[in-house]
Known about the structure:
Elements: E1 10-21, H1 25-32, H2 35-41, E2 45-52, E3 55-64, E4 67-81, E5 85-94, E6 97-110, E7 113-125, H3 127-130, H4 133-158
Antiparallel strand pairs: 1-7, 2-3, 3-4, 4-5, 5-6, 6-7
Amino acid sequence: MDIDIQREVVKTLHIHYQHEFPLQREQVWDHLQNEDVLRKSLPGCRKFERVSEDTYDAELGLNIGPVKGTFTGQVRLSDQTRPDSYRLVLKGKGKPGELNADARITLEENSGETVVSCAADVQVTGVLASVGQRVMGSVAKLILGQFFKAVASQIRQSA
């Protein structure tokens, strides 16, 4: 008797990213909490709808390196300490696999500018987990870079 047991591979990534905004911390905070700014800034965002006070249903279509496909899931903002920090929890799944992220976002003002830091633990499964950790880390940082650059663009447009 043969028993075929398939084990799901789970990889955990630890990601750190920083972005500087030439604005005061309160202004950056307001934009990072703005539903419309988030919708327009998330790479490949097809849907971003509020389902409760701090939770959103999201759908992202991504095509970056090995990360190709549509992901659906939820984004939740919690532990908000205005304008210092908040926690962002993301749970998503798509054909390439599942993604669970828990990120701590901090905002520090420095000489009239604001440094936004993101420290995240990300777990991936499926095809995403089969990709090397260095490649996935690079893709994650690229996505974060696109997001923060898009937020900066939204800030400039609203000025």
